[in-house]
Fold this protein.
Amino acid sequence: VSVRQREPNMDLLVAIAAVSAYLYSALVTLTGGEHIYFDVTVAIIVIVTVGNHYESTLKKQAADRLSELTAVQADKARRVTEDGYEDVPLDQLAPDDRVLVRSGGRVPVDGIVVEGEASVDEAVVTGESLPVRKSPGEQVVGGSVVTGGAVTIRVGEDATSSLDRIAELVWNLQSGTSGIQKLADRLATVFVPLVLALAVTVTVAYLVTGAALTTALLTGLTMLIVSCPCALGLATPLAVAAGLRDALDRSIVVFDDTVFERLRDADTVVFDKTGTLTTGEMRVLETDLSAGLLAQAAALEERSAHPVGEAIAAAASRPDSSPTAEGLGVTDGGPLTDGQQPTDYEQADTTIDSTGETMVESFESHTRGVSGEVDGTPVVVGHPKLFASRGWDVPDRLADRAAEARSEGHVAVLVGRDGAAEGVVVAGDRLRSGWEETVTSLETDGVDVIVLTGDDAEAAARFRDHDAVTEVFAGVPPEGKAETVTRLRQRGQTVMVGDGTNDAPALAAADLGIALGGGTAMAADAADAAIVDDDLGSVGTVFELSQAAGSRIRGNIAWAFCYNAVAIPLAITGLLNPLFAALAMAASSLLVTLNSTRSLLD
């Protein structure tokens, strides 16, 4: 293939050396000579085969780690029907189906909790040993185990499991060819013709100087064998395979093994704020409105898909909405009582409280909030600009509190009825632990750190004020993220770090995408690597693996060329014979193999 494509590679030199040793030995045997080297032919082939086998073994180990995840998948689900329940195969589940999972059961597919609360063991995906409490509105991952309680989940849009999607990587890891291998192949296109030309020149030179034919051929053969680039061929794939293995050990799934090569050239890392630098779990932090108005706001927000709306609806449906519960306090009307809060979160689109008095007669979604008629009263929930556009009155007290909350990095929405704002709801999500250490580490390594957020400039100030953050792009809508990343690529090699869902276009637009939450379908399609356990610190680990892999590869290649620089002159002068040349080649390959298979982060 190499000859046909006129692209000399390392395999060509290996084949020529093995065939030449065999032909030389056959010639010596036929002419009655004493020194034959059939064993050298076998040695060359065995060394190359063992190296390729070891590379495949490392990749298979990585693939087996992924396969272990899928082995724990449930094969059936208990679907909720009008008449009760039915057990169905997973392939019969459809988006928005309801599935019941009781204590001890395994969650069959990814979904959202719509009823009940339970402790869920997600160790199979995240590695977290402690169970996580799941409530309505929170996501659960297929393959996790309910250790206490029972929940009804709504099946996700693609009705599949995170683990199933991760399993698709098995084939990539088993059959993929290293992108970094191209470096060695490029070197081989120069090295192989040079060695062949030098071997022919040495053989002819020996003949011209009067040496015997066997001596001349033996010298040329020795030079071919000692130059056989087995170590060069093993240098890259084994180091990359070790990197893939180390990444999996740290819950990092590499979809494309050129990641290590491309990441070394990265000079800009872009972080999405929501779901990446923060947990993405929006919840109500504070309320200043009556219980009845909160119930009416929740009735409208039940029909909204916005995270803040979902948080308001969830807060109103919580059994305990006292000031000590999740920091939620309801003023001007006291804490919600049992008669003022919903008994069924899923039925809130028609009624919010147990008395059935909170009814939504109309609903309209806007860019900055929602509005509608609830209990015959016009109600608006949203940004102060939405109130201004409608000419509704906003008391200074509420406007000031909303502005203060935004300056703290939170989201503040006003709630009003009958032409005036009467209350404010403050919502927000928590910053991920370790985010400051991560951005500081990247900045120390000379990487520009940029934050993308849809928040206004006031809310983004907490990131802009951080010394390690180079720049903050505020007010960027989800559809504008990809465009922003494309512009940043004009400055240099750009890495996008996002949550893998609404950040998919930006992940795809970047030179390299890293998704937090490897279970999302978008992450598998758009990202080059995924951090399965959502540990933001693993972004730095990916960079460390990239640098370590590059250093290991360069060291291996340097050793291979140093070996040739010493061995080839010895072969030319006749100080080596083919057997010792084969032993030297084997020793060189063994050193490279042992060096490559060590953990990159040792």
In short: The CA atoms of residues 522 and 599 lie 30 Å apart. The chain has 21 helices and 22 strands.
